[in-house]
């Protein structure tokens, strides 16, 4: 029996325009709304993320973060 899909948490999120555009594109391609797409990504994190690539991308993002906030 499938689990009922309930969105139980709501929280304010600040995203870059590029990040939000990519989320919307992913959600549209998958036939989901943005909340469902985020839930899918985080519920399936280990199977959809390449850890080596994530670590590299996270270092780059953090290195540019202060400049991007200005």
Q: Rg from C-alpha positions?
A: 15 Å
Give the CA-based shape.
Answer: globular
Q: Structurally, how many domains make up the residues? A: 1
- Helix and strand content put the structural class at mainly alpha
| C-alpha end-to-end distance | 50 Å
Assess the beta-strand content as a share of residues. under 5%
List unreliable stretches of 5+ residues.
none
Mean residue pLDDT = 89
| Largest sheet properties | none
Number of strands: 0
Helicity range: 55-70%
Give the SSE order as H and E letters.
HHHH
Protein name: Ribbon-helix-helix domain-containing protein
Concise overview:
This protein has 70 residues and is an all-alpha fold.
Q: Could you please describe the fold and organization of this structure?
A:
The protein is mainly alpha-helical. The chain has one domain (15-67). The chain is built from four helices and no strands. Helix 1 packs across helix 2 (34-43). The termini are far apart. The model has no long low-confidence stretch (mean pLDDT 89).
Please supply descriptive tags for the structure shown above.
single chain, 70 residues, mainly alpha, 67% helix, globular, Ribbon-helix-helix domain-containing protein
Question: What order do the helices and strands come in, and which of them pair?
Answer:
Blueprint: H1 17-30, H2 34-43, H3 45-48, H4 51-69
Helix pairs in contact: 1-2
